[in-house]
């Protein structure tokens, strides 16, 4: 991953342990099982759209209180920040919820507020809008930017933006979409700086 100077991270399931039970959220909000939650809400007429959107926000704030850091996530963020790389978050969550999670991980100070893009700041993944916003602001070449995430939408957004992609997941579920595959953030750190990502410093 030499040459990468800009990192766009997905949040839930990538820097934190996945805690969103999407079927349960759909049930709580009365959204059909096979519908994409954000797409479904966006298509509703008012006032239903605002009402359901507010209820989703409340669920996300509730979930953010119980956030758990993913293996090596905080160390990886600190390492990248200390070497001067650009760091962003692209999440389908709210920016305020994203910052609660980043505070819980102890790395909120590593991110500029405008580089944390929630669902009201960019079109939702797999649209590349958020990555393109960040790449432009950072004035980096797309080949110097990687989208890091645990789901197909993260990789598709990265591909659509023309940047590199890294899947963080135990199994390589989308080999055609990922330039790199790592089981966890600790492995990414270890590949960048062997020794730093050891068990001794994990947590
Ligand atoms: Mg995710």
TrEMBL record:
Stated name of the protein: Haloacid dehalogenase superfamily, subfamily IA, variant 3 with third motif having DD or ED
Domain of life: Bacteria
InterPro entries assigned to the protein according to its UniProt record, in alphabetical order: HAD-like_sf, HAD-SF_hydro_IA, HAD_sf
Higher taxonomy: Bacteria, Pseudomonadati, Pseudomonadota, Gammaproteobacteria, Pseudomonadales
């Amino acid at each position: 991953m030499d040459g990468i100077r800009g990192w766009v991270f997905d949040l839930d399931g990538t820097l934190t342990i996945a805690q969103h039970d999407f079927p349960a959220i759909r049930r709580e909000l009365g959204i059909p099982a096979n519908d994409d939650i954000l797409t479904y809400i966006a298509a509703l007429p008012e006032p239903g759209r605002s009402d359901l959107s507010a209820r989703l926000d409340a669920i996300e704030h509730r979930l953010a209180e119980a956030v758990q850091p993913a293996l090596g996530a905080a160390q990886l963020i600190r390492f990248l920040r200390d070497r001067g790389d650009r760091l962003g978050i692209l999440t389908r969550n709210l920016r305020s919820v994203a910052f609660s999670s980043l505070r819980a991980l102890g790395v909120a100070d590593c991110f500029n507020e405008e580089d944390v893009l929630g669902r009201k700041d960019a079109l939702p993944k797999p649209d590349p809008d958020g990555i393109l916003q960040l790449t432009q602001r950072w004035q980096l070449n797309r080949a110097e930017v990687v989208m890091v995430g645990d789901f197909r939408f993260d990789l598709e957004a990265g591909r659509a933006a023309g940047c590199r992609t890294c899947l963080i997941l135990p199994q390589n579920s989308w080999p055609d979409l990922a330039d790199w595959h790592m089981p966890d953030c600790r492995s990414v750190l270890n590949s960048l700086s062997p020794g730093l990502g050891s068990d001794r410093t994990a947590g």
